[in-house]
């Protein structure tokens, strides 16, 4: 059964710092991996999607990498800003039972201070 | 493009009462998902629909939860009777048809349920 782990659970950094969030998964048989952002009391906003055949994706100050064979992904945030403060969730799309479910980690809560 | 719509945004009920949530997916998205997110956890899939048919409901507590997707568009999720442990955010997501490796799920704002 697929399990997703995110480390660290919480992270506090000063504005301007570059940072890395980590995600690991136990079963490499995935279709893709998505990184989401969740603000308090809000739904999930998709940040990046990496297909299983890809190694990385970039969007603005965000870069996500995928090493499927080792079951790892990282989300790199460059030049962090207070507006980046949120919970970041990693999820893998995998075949579970009869459907295709996103299996989520518990998230990393990021706080960027000005 | 309009996003996934959900209502209500918040609901407070007493245990053993019933409650229903509504979701309207992005137009043209054939697949619809309901997830449950307990505080401090990642979302967990409850049920997946493909058009108006159920693909996976293996994690839906069927003794109290039910869901339907009439006409393959809107969906409702019902809890009857509610328990304290049902307090969570209920998220609806949808995804367009196509190859699974490109499958991107788009989430609504969620309904926060508090059971007292």
Short structural description:
By secondary structure, chain A is an all-beta fold. Chain A has strands at about 5, 10-15, 20-25, 30-40, 45-50, 55-60, 60-65, 70-75, 85-95, 100-105, 110-114. Chain B contains no helices and 11 strands.
Distinctive features:
heterodimer; A: 114 residues; mainly beta; 6-stranded mixed beta sheet; globular; B: 116 residues; 4-stranded antiparallel beta sheet; 0% helix
Q: Please trace the helix and strand order of chain A, writing H or E for each element.
A: EEEEEEEEEEE
Structural class of chain A: mainly beta
- The DSSP helix count of chain A reads 0
In percent, how helical is the residue content of chain B?
under 10%
Q: What would the principal axes of the Cα set say about the shape of chain A?
A: globular
Following the backbone from N to C, one meets helices and strands of chain B in this order, namely EEEEEEEEEEE
Structural class of chain B: mainly beta
Shape assignment of chain B: globular
The unreliable regions of chain A are none
What oligomeric arrangement do these chains adopt?
Answer: heterodimer
The portion of residues forming beta strands of chain A comes to over 45%
Largest sheet data of chain B: 7 strands, mixed
Biggest interface goes to: A-B, 29 and 28 residues
| Spans where pLDDT lies below 50 across 5 or more residues of chain B | none
Rg of chain A over CA atoms, rounded to whole Å, is 14 Å
User: For the report, how would you describe the main beta sheet of chain A?
Assistant: 6 strands, mixed
Assign a percent range to the helix content of chain A.
Answer: under 10%
């Amino acid at each position: 059964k697929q399990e997703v782990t995110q480390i660290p659970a919480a992270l506090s950094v000063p504005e301007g710092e570059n940072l890395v969030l980590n995600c690991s998964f136990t079963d490499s048989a995935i279709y893709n991996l998505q990184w989401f952002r969740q603000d308090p009391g809000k739904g999930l906003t998709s940040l990046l999607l990496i297909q299983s055949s890809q190694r990385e994706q970039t969007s603005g100050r965000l870069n996500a990498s995928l090493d499927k064979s080792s079951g790892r992904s990282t989300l790199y945030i460059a030049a962090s800003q207070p507006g980046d403060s949120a919970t970041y969730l990693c999820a893998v799309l995998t075949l579970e039972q009869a459907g295709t479910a996103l299996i989520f980690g518990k998230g990393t809560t990021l706080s960027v201070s000005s | 493009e309009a996003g996934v719509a959900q209502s209500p945004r918040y609901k407070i009920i007493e245990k053993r009462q019933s409650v229903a949530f509504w979701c309207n997916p992005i137009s043209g998205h054939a697949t619809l998902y309901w997830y449950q997110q307990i505080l401090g956890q990642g979302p967990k899939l409850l049920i997946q629909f493909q058009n108006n048919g159920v693909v996976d409901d293996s994690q839906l507590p069927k003794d109290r939860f039910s869901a339907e997707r009439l006409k393959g568009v809107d969906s409702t999720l019902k809890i009857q009777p509610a328990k304290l442990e049902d307090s969570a955010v209920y998220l609806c997501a949808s995804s367009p048809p196509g190859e699974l490796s490109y499958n991107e799920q788009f989430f609504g704002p969620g309904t926060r349920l508090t059971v007292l």
